[in-house]
Specification:
GO terms for molecular function: endopolyphosphatase activity; exopolyphosphatase activity; phosphoric diester hydrolase activity. Keywords: Glycoprotein, Hydrolase, Signal. This is Metallo-dependent phosphatase-like protein. It is a single chain. Helices cover 23% and strands 11% of the residues. The chain has eleven helices and 14 strands. The strands form four sheets. It has a six-stranded mixed β-sheet with strand order 4-3-2-10-13-14, with no helix packed on it. Strand 5 and strand 6 form a beta hairpin.
Length: 535
């Protein structure tokens, strides 16, 4: 029987061995940390890419480092949208100031998926190892100041631009991230820059994977070869199999991952579908959510075209769909306006029935009842599934991960990934800066709501809850556009998807609607590329 603890990426997870302590926040005792109010929201922020050499008025052809008077779109004060320029300090500082003022009192934790150094895209100013470390230290200090000092846990992961030589940076990052990594995770971090940490005491944890060990461009590793148990990627996946949850930087695909890392990573996600609610990534800079994570990916042109083609192949009707075969991958848009515009997401998740104070969660009677129910159901939903293909009979494939005997498969129609229940992801709101070029020293920038996945009707209390004085709004009213701050709206451009939650059935429903509905598909494409060029 598996002892069930909860791990969070988009939601909950279950692990027998995890008992990580809560982060000890700078200047805050663990007792003080445990009395945070639970809001049912978290921030996902990624790809900040601050650039100390960014110069106002510089040319895009120089990565915004040097002027060229022939350039018709010189570098702006707060950044240069749809360019190959990284973030000026003015943009990164404003972003943290904005989050501090508007969101630090409204969220439970922060998922921070890497890339805190500039791109190495200027031959005249090659990026140095000291610069990478200095920029990561600077961003980490802002994370500590804005969130950790207020008792809000922050869970970082490495980005592909946070490294010099992929596997020789661990000691330095153990210092840079010392405030984020609990002592009990020190061994795993020193082994490969991956770790686990509780983010809601005695209830919810997160795991940060170092996906650079899976990344094809990392030539210093062996690519998760089944015959090499000492390969760093294989060791990490063995560790992941024990932890059963992850959020990471480089999103999984056969294009990004080694051919042996990808099928095993997919198999783990599907095998523990009852414990993994979703996956959070940076790296691609797009706003893209993939519904199906199969062991085979298609290549049919642009990412948008590939997604729509895949969505079109989802079996109909959905009632007959085998939900066991699906997992959800969320790729968040980036802060850096390269090649789109600054953006971040606020996710919400189900905390209905729980105490609102984190110090009460571990002993909460409702949580204990849910855990007991999950333990009983887990015993009745274990099965062995095999997916061997004819080519596995060939000698050259016999030692491939995808051809090995499969272990117990865990799926449950009542799990939080399949049915809206405790810890299920409910939706997200994406905020962006569409008028980036208009802002300068005399015109303050603004992050605006771009869209939400929620139904319009969920933004305000219904008849049953409208008299509750402490009603928890999905998005605080002051952060909504004025037209949505009062109840009564019957339609809005900000709520195109109308998803009741982000469970697998809801995502598949959206996927099939996107395949059939041209107008909705065009909105999806617009959000995906944020007005920029399709890639």
């Amino acid at each position: 029987m598996r002892t069930r603890s909860l791990i969070f990426t988009l939601g909950s997870c279950c692990v027998a061995s995890l008992a990580s302590p809560t982060q000890v926040v700078l200047g805050t005792s663990q007792v003080e940390l445990r009395i945070r109010q639970l809001h049912g929201r978290f921030l996902h922020i990624t790809d900040i890419h601050p650039d100390p050499f960014y110069e106002l008025g510089a040319s895009q052809s120089s990565a915004c480092h040097r002027p060229n008077f022939k350039d018709e779109r010189p570098a702006g004060y707060y950044g240069t949208p749809y360019s190959f320029c990284d973030s000026p300090f003015s943009l990164t500082n404003f972003t943290f100031d904005f989050l501090d003022e508007h969101w630090s009192s409204e969220i439970d934790f922060v998922i921070w998926t890497g890339d805190n150094a500039r791109h190495d895209n200027d031959d005249d100013l090659p990026r140095t190892l000291d610069e990478i470390y200095d920029l990561n230290r600077a961003v980490a200090k802002r994370m500590e100041h804005v969130f950790l000092k207020k008792g809000i846990p922050v869970v970082p992961s490495l980005g592909n631009n946070d490294i010099w030589r992929p596997n020789k940076i661990i000691e330095e990052f153990s210092s840079i991230w010392s405030a984020f990594i609990p002592p009990t995770s020190s061994a795993s971090f020193h082994q490969g820059a991956y770790f686990s940490t509780e983010i809601i005491p005695d209830a919810v944890a997160a795991i940060s994977l170092n996906t650079l060990y899976f990344y094809k461009k990392n030539h210093a590793v062996g690519g998760c070869d089944y015959t090499d148990p000492k390969d760093p990627g294989t060791i990490q996946l063995d560790w992941l199999e024990e932890q059963l949850e992850a959020f990471r930087h480089v999103p999984p695909s056969e294009a990004n991952y080694f051919s042996e890392c990808y099928p095993r990573f997919v198999e783990l996600n599907l095998r523990f579908q009852d414990t993994i609610l979703g996956n959070l990534y940076g790296f691609s800079f797009l706003d893209a959510d993939e519904i199906n994570m199969s062991s085979k990916t298609s290549s049919r042109g642009t990412l948008f075209e590939t997604l729509i083609a895949d969505f079109s192949e989802i079996p109909a009707p959905l009632e007959d769909t085998r939900y066991d075969d699906y997992a959800v991958v969320n790729v968040n848009a980036a802060i850096v306006p390269n090649p789109y515009i600054p953006s971040f997401r606020i996710f919400t998740y189900n905390v209905t029935g729980l105490s609102t104070l984190t110090k009460d969660i571990g002993s909460d009677p409702y949580l204990q009842t849910i855990k007991a129910t999950q333990r009983r159901r887990a015993l009745n939903h274990e099965q062995v599934r095999t997916f061997k293909k004819p080519k596995c009979e060939h000698k050259k494939f016999r030692n491939a991960w995808r051809c090995q005997p499969h272990k117990l498969w865990h799926s449950d129609s009542e799990s939080p990934s399949r049915r809206n229940s405790l810890w299920s992801p409910l939706g997200f709101a994406q905020f962006y800066m569409p008028r980036l070029e208009e802002f300068d020293q005399t015109h303050d920038p603004e992050f605006e709501l771009e869209y939400m996945t929620f139904p319009l009707s969920s933004l305000h209390p219904d008849e049953q809850t409208q008299n509750i004085t402490d009603h928890q709004y999905i998005i605080p009213l002051q952060l909504l556009p004025e037209e949505l701050r009062e109840p009564g709206a019957v339609e809005s451009e900000y709520t195109p998807y109308e998803l009741n939650d982000l469970t697998i059935p809801s995502w598949l429903d959206l996927a099939t609607r996107l395949a059939k509905n041209k107008e909705l598909r065009l909105r999806f494409k617009e959000f995906m590329y944020m007005g920029g060029v399709e890639e």
